[in-house]
Design goal:
It comes from Chloracidobacterium validum. By secondary structure, this protein is mainly beta. It contains two helices and twelve strands; from the N terminus they run E-E-E-E-E-H-E-H-E-E-E-E-E-E. It has two domains: 88 residues, RimM (Elongation Factor Tu (Ef-tu), domain 3, Beta Barrel), CATH 2.40.30.60; 66 residues, PRC-barrel domain (SH3 type barrels, Roll), CATH 2.30.30.240.
Length: 184
Amino acid sequence: MTLAMNQALPPSEELVTIAAIRRPRGLRGEVVAISLSDYPERFAAGLSVWLRPARGAARPAVIERAWFHKNNVILKFVGLNHINDVEPLTGCQVCVPLSARVTPPPDEFFYDDLIGCQVELMSGEGVGTVVDFAPYGGGVLVVERVHPDGQRQEHLVPFVRAICPDVDVTAKRIRIAPPEGLFD
């Protein structure tokens, strides 16, 4: 059986983080990680991933096994069989190529797909650009508006269907029907 350990990431491929490694677990090469995915199947045995340190290049790895324990995911990678092999992984992100990302169900979106979307009123008038997403309540878009004089202003727009009825992340556009006074 050939493992994906020697696969190179295409230079144009973006990585998406699915977990963050916190620390080694035991002596047999397991690590404790925080799952950043809503999809537990992302950690299936045999999945090729990239381990990206805070500094330096990402390196390929293959998940040998994974299970959830106390709000964490325990990961064991193929070929890393001792604590000395995984201690340097503390702080690494476990990533997959953007092309391997799970497709969310209809009317659900990934935070990073919302960033950069142009926000406009239902009439087509531009409001600004989504620069962040805050997970307060159901979620809040942080929209930056640049005025003609160059002054920047941030607005918080609740990310709910009543206010954001038309979301098209492919076109990078969100059309909103804000309640009166939202931009005052």
